[in-house]
Predict the structure.
Amino acid sequence: MAACTFPHSAVADAFTAEALACETAVTFATDLGFRSVQVEGDSLSIIKKLNAATMNRSLINPIISDIQILRGSFDNITFSFVGRQGNMVAHELAKLGIKFSEPMYWMEEVPMQVERLVLRDLPP
């Protein structure tokens, strides 16, 4: 339904980049007015922190806390782990995003290479 790439400069590590990508996705879904969202990610550690009932004490606590606050914007939101093979669309968007110096947003249409991966992921 929608896609975006969002450059984050001066990110310390891949762990923080994954958390920021999740926060951006949840914020984007909130801005679009979605009421039910399924967030999939290939960082098991981030997904566990988002699903944990206890306070997060890691360095990315502010990001996780922001995402937890945004949960209230949805009737239903889930965070699920998928391996790299199940997350090819996000990987392709990340590669595409490197080409842009500013955020890019697509509504209803996405770049052709991303659309092919989305169609491949659809159930038969």
User: Anything to note?
Assistant: The first helix runs from residue 14 to 31.
